[in-house]
C-alpha cells in the first residue's frame, strides 16, 4: 500500500472535497466505508451524507472546540511564517490516503474498513480496545486518475483526553503499511498476483478506451458532441474507474496458463475464453510450414469487447511471467505435446476450430478456478432470468429455453457429460405451459394467454 499524509484546519472543506467531483472530475462513486460512532448519524446506509458538509464539519470539530475553550492548542501547530497569526489548532485535521498500486487489484468496502481500522491502531491513533474518544472517517472513491484503488482517512487529532501524538507519522505510516502487507491476508493475496502487478500500464491507452466506451454507452437526450466538457469528462472518468481491459485480459490469460499442463492446452484454453492468440515466429520461419514449437518465440492476444472495441497485447504487455519462454518452464515437453502445439498454433492462425476436440481442458476434473467462476456466474444469471419470468408463462418458458441453451453450450465447452438439449426440451416446456392454462385460455391466476 502507498500512504500519503497531509494536515490542515478546515474539516468542512476536506469533507466537501472527499464527497465532491475532485479537482479534475475524477471522483466516482464516492461513499463512506467506516467512521467513528459520533459521526454515524451524519451518513445514510448508502454511505452518502445525510447532513450538509458544514454540519458534518461542525460535528467533526466538537472535540477540538473543547480543547480550544480550554486554551490547549495542538503541540505541533505550525509556527512562525507558516502561521503568522498564531492560529489555534492549525494542524488539527490529519488526512491520509491509502492506495493499492494500479493493476494490482481492487478490494471490497469490507476489506477497506478492516484495513483502515488496523492501520489507525498501528499508527496509535485508535486505541487497541476500540474505546471511544477519537473522531474519524474513511471515504472511498472509484479508481484514481492513475488507476489506484484507494481510500481517504480523515482524523480529528483532538480527543477527550488531549491530543493524538503524530510525531514522525510518515515513517510510521510506511512501517505500518509494510507490516500489513506481510500480515493481512487480502494484501498478501494481492502481492502474490504477479501478472496484475506486472502488466505494462499506460494511462493514455486506458484513457482512449474510456473515451470510446463512454461515447458508445451514452444515451442522453443531447448528442455526445453537444455535452459540455465537464459532462464528458465525468462520464469518461466513471468508465475509466470501472474498466481496465489490459488487467482483465492479463488475469484470464494467467489463469489459462496456470491451469494448462502443455502448450497446446494453453492455446485451446485461451481461445475458449473468446480471445485470439497468434504466434510470433522466429525469423526465417514461414507461417504455413513451421514444424516445431521452438520456432514460436512469443504470442499476441487479441481481445474484442461485446460492443466492438478491439485491443491487442503482446505477451510482455501482460507481465514478464507471461512470456512464452517463462510459461514453457512449467509445461510438459514430449513428442505428442510438441506436435499438438504446432497444430494448435496453425489452427489459431487460420481461425479454424481447435485441432484436438477433446483435450485435457474438457475434463471436469481439470476445471480451473476461473472455469468454476464462469460456470457459477452463468448459472446465477440463468436463475435470475427464470425467476423474473415466474409471473408470465411465456416469459418463463423463454427463460427456461434460453437457460437450457446456455447450459448446453457450457456443457460442450467444458466437457460436462452429455449436456442438455434445448430443442428437445422446447416441446416439453410448451406442453407444461399448456397444462397450466385452462380450457378458457386463462392460467390459475386468471391471466389470459394467447393460444
Automatic annotation (TrEMBL):
InterPro entries: Endonuclease_MobA/VirD2 (IPR005094). Residues 89-183 form the MobA/VirD2-like nuclease domain. Pfam families: Relaxase. It comes from the Bacteria. Residues 70-90, 431-451 are annotated as: Disordered. Signal peptide: none annotated. Residues 439-451 have a biased composition (Basic and acidic residues). This is MobA/VirD2-like nuclease domain-containing protein.
Amino acid at each position: 500500500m502507498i500512504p500519503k499524509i497531509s494536515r490542515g484546519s478546515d474539516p468542512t472543506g476536506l469533507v466537501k472535497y472527499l464527497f465532491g467531483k475532485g479537482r479534475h472530475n475524477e471522483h466516482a462513486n464516492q461513499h463512506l466505508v467506516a467512521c467513528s460512532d459520533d459521526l454515524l448519524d451524519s451518513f445514510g446506509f448508502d454511505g452518502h451524507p445525510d447532513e450538509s458538509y458544514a454540519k458534518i464539519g461542525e460535528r467533526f470539530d466538537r472535540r477540538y472546540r473543547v480543547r480550544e475553550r480550554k486554551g490547549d492548542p495542538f503541540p505541533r501547530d505550525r509556527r512562525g511564517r507558516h502561521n503568522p497569526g498564531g492560529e489555534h489548532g492549525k494542524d488539527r485535521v490529519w488526512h491520509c490516503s491509502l492506495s493499492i498500486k494500479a493493476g494490482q487489484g481492487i478490494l471490497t468496502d469490507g476489506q477497506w474498513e478492516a484495513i483502515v481500522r488496523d492501520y489507525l491502531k498501528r499508527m496509535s491513533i485508535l486505541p487497541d480496545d476500540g474505546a471511544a474518544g477519537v473522531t474519524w472517517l474513511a471515504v472511498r472513491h472509484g479508481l484514481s486518475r492513475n488507476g489506484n484503488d484507494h481510500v481517504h482517512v480523515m482524523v480529528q487529532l483532538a480527543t477527550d483526553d488531549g491530543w493524538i501524538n503524530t510525531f514522525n507519522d510518515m515513517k510510521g505510516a510506511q512501517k505500518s503499511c509494510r507490516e500489513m502487507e506481510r500480515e493481512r491476508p487480502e494484501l498478501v493475496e494481492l502481492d502474490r498476483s504477479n501478472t496484475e502487478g506486472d502488466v505494462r500500464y499506460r494511462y493514455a491507452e486506458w484513457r482512449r478506451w474510456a473515451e470510446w466506451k463512454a461515447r458508445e454507452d451514452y444515451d442522453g437526450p443531447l448528442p455526445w458532441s453537444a455535452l459540455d466538457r465537464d459532462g464528458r469528462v465525468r462520464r469518461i472518468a466513471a468508465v475509466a474507474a470501472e474498466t481496465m481491459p489490459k488487467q482483465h485480459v492479463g488475469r484470464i490469460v494467467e489463469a489459462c496458463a496456470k491451469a494448462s499442463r502443455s502448450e497446446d492446452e494453453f492455446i485451446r484454453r485461451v481461445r475458449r475464453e473468446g480471445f485470439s492468440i497468434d504466434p510470433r515466429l522466429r525469423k526465417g520461419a514461414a507461417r504455413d510450414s513451421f514444424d516445431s514449437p521452438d520456432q514460436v518465440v512469443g504470442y499476441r492476444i487479441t481481445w474484442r469487447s461485446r460492443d466492438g472495441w478491439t485491443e491487442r497485447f503482446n505477451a510482455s504487455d501482460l507481465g514478464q511471467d507471461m512470456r512464452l519462454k517463462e510459461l514453457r518452464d512449467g509445461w510438459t515437453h514430449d513428442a505428442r505435446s510438441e506436435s499438438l502445439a504446432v497444430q494448435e498454433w496453425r489452427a489459431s492462425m487460420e481461425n479454424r476450430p481447435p485441432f484436438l476436440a477433446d483435450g485435457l481442458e474438457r475434463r471436469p476434473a481439470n476445471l480451473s478456478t476461473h472455469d468454476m467462476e464462469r460456470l457459477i456466474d452463468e448459472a446465477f444469471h440463468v436463475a435470475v432470468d427464470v425467476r423474473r419470468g415466474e409471473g408470465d408463462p411465456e416469459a418463463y418458458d423463454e427463460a427456461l429455453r434460453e437457460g437450457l441453451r446456455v447450459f448446453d453450450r457450457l456443457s460442450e465447452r467444458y466437457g460436462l457429460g452429455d449436456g442438455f438439449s434445448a430443442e428437445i426440451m422446447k416441446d416439453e416446456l410448451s406442453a407444461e405451459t399448456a397444462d397450466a392454462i385452462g380450457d378458457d385460455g386463462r392460467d390459475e391466476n386468471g391471466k389470459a394467454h394467447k393460444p
